[in-house]
Amino acid sequence: DGNSYNDQGNGIIFYQGATDFGSRFPQIRQYTTKPARLAKQGDILLSVRAPVGAINIANNDCCIGRGLVALNSKANTITYLYEAIKTLKQIFDRRNIDGTTFGAIAKDDLFSLNVIDPDNSILDNFHLFVYPMFIRMNILEQENQSLASLRDFLLPMLMNGQVTVKTSKKAKK
Which site among 2, 44, 114, 127 is 20 to 30 Å from 34 CA-CA? Predict the structure, then answer.
């Protein structure tokens, strides 16, 4: 229910669609007091309405709108699933370039796309190799978001003279 949406932080975080997506994690813009479709922290969020194929990772438990689906790995290999979904995004992008547009993709359409399904030992080895890099990329993106937020907070104060920057003695030399 659209009447339950707010930007005051009441309720649970709500991601409507790809408009909320950042480079790796969605940006919090709205909340809802009447959540209907939930995603868990770590789920892959896939845009299923124009633009179809955009992906992000839920960095918190949240509610998702009709423009998104939440995907997770039953085999606990989120790294492989993330890379497989990135490959599907490339397919959607190529089709859009070729003039075939996707206004939306249904569940049956999504599950009809071909994805390699390796055996568990290959998945486990892939996950062991890639997971540390995957986590490091998540941490770096969260740090970037924190730094950008701090910049956005401090820059206006610096511009209007509320704060100043002191130069260190080493910098003066």
Answer: 44
Burial-class residue 129 by CB neighbours within 10 Å (0-12, 13-18, 19+): exposed
**Secondary structure of residue 64 in the 3-state scheme:** strand
Rounded distance between C-alpha atoms, residue 15 and residue 128, angstroms: 30
User: Alpha-carbon dihedral of residues 42, 72, 69, 130, nearest 10 degrees?
Assistant: 60
Q: What's the CA gap between 131 and 142, in Å, rounded?
A: 17
Q: Enter the pTM of the model.
A: 0.84
Q: Which pLDDT score, from 0 to 100, does residue 76 have? A: 81
What is the average pLDDT score of the chain? 89
Query: E strands of 67-117, at which residues?
Result: 68-71
Q: Rounded to an integer, what distance in angstroms lies between the CA atom of residue 11 and that of residue 28?
A: 13
Phi, psi of 143 (to 5 degrees): -65, -40
User: What is the torsional sign of CA 19, 133, 74, 143?
Assistant: negative
Token pair of 101 as six digits: 């547009």
**Which residue ranges in the chain fall short of pLDDT 70?**
95-102, 171-173
User: How many Å apart are CA 94 and CA 170, to the nearest integer?
Assistant: 53
What sign does the CA torsion over 73, 79, 80, 85 have? positive
Query: Which residue do the tokens 């939440």 mark?
Result: 70
Structure-token match 């085999």, residue found: 75
